[in-house]
Amino acid sequence: MNFFDPKAVDWWWENGVMKVASIGAKFVKTDVGGTMDLKGLHNIFPLAYAEAPYRKFQEYNNMRGLTHTREGYAGIQRYPYIWAGDWGSEWQWFEPVIRAGLNIGMSGVGNWTHCMGGFEQYSPYDTELYTRWVQFGMFSPIAMVFGMDHPRYHEPWTYGPEALANFIKYDSLRYTLIPYIYSNAYQLYKTARPMMTPLVMDYPQDENTYQLTRQYMFGPWMMVCPVTTKGALSQHVYFPGGEWFDYETGERYEGRQYKSFLTPLDVLPVYIKAGAIIPMQPAMQWVDQHPVDVITLDVYPSGISSYEMYEDDGISMDYQKGIGSLTRFTSRLADGSWTFTADKPVGKYKPAKHTYLVKAYLQNAPQSVIENGKSLPVLSSVADADRNTGWFYDTEHKRLYVKTAGDNRQKIEIVVQ
Predict the structure, then answer these.
(1) Who has greater pLDDT, 357 or 123?
(2) Residues 163, 293 within the same domain
(3) Residue 320: inside a domain, yes or no?
(4) Tens of pLDDT, residues 167-223
(5) Residue 196, in any domain of the structure
(6) Together in a domain, 327 and 368
(7) 56/139 same-domain check
(8) Which of 33, 30, 27, 31 is nearest to 66 (CA)?
(9) What is the rounded average pLDDT for all residues in the chain?
(10) Cβ(170)–Cβ(138) below 8 Å
């Protein structure tokens, strides 16, 4: 097909793609896009090939277009998303996929993905490899399960109960992180900062980050360190400057040092940068399965820090007209007192109404928690804080839980002393 010819594209759409678009398909995969032998046009053929269904589906469905493509050239980021290709289901290809993703992100293509577990199995299937690759896959810009591992096709339940439990754990975590992921996708759109970045982008003055190809930042706050060695009992992690928290345990680590950690198979090493404010939602099976009436804010207080959560309708092209909203959260820790502020959303889009559940790592139990000048009641448990307005301090994990009385229709200030 000559995708440079609008008439050819119309014929292709009407006689081919409409057969699936008319029954509900929202996008297609533009595979094998690098084979057209046209002098002077070979490199840009993948752009025309990806653009055609992207724009046609966008017009037909009256919603944002989407394309799954394998090849690309400068400008392919306009037609997301690109896929890493047919990497083999072997350990030797696992870490290079991470490196490839960091490289393409720095090349301006932020929305990319890969086959969790590799594309095709060349030897007896490896449950450990699949488990580790899934953990990385859920912390990739686009999470995709796909491959030619016949007869299992990388379906998680075919790898046994432990692999399935791992898949559910990290798939559920990804869905809770949708507000964080979506806000960082907005920053990609506005600033070109990729969702997944090498540490050297944030720490160019630290030479220790120059050769780190297995660790990366997922958004500005989360450092992800996939285990890429078969049978690994431990692995070393480099912490850049500042303070870091273990996402599983809450343990603190000082920066500018290497440390070695045990690597149980059911845990992906993730570390949170001090000062982090991570907006989250309840776990779901699909986006918008339930109304998001509570936004959880996972906070790691350190000095003064802030984060903006982006919201829009998630479907239309109105975001290109500036119809969206930003909600700024600010954390201030000083002199034994912690203040957390959630501003009212700013912008042309009015987000759904929701209260907040604030979870913060604080070394000492509070004497009082005040919201907009009124003392909040002390609650009996974490589960109680999930349901009722008030606060609870978990002394074992040194974590404060605050369920707000107010919602995003007003500014909220929480003062903890």
Answers:
(1) 357
(2) no
(3) yes
(4) 999 999 999 999 999 999 999 999 999 999 999 999 999 999 999 999 999 999 999
(5) no
(6) yes
(7) yes
(8) 27
(9) 94
(10) yes
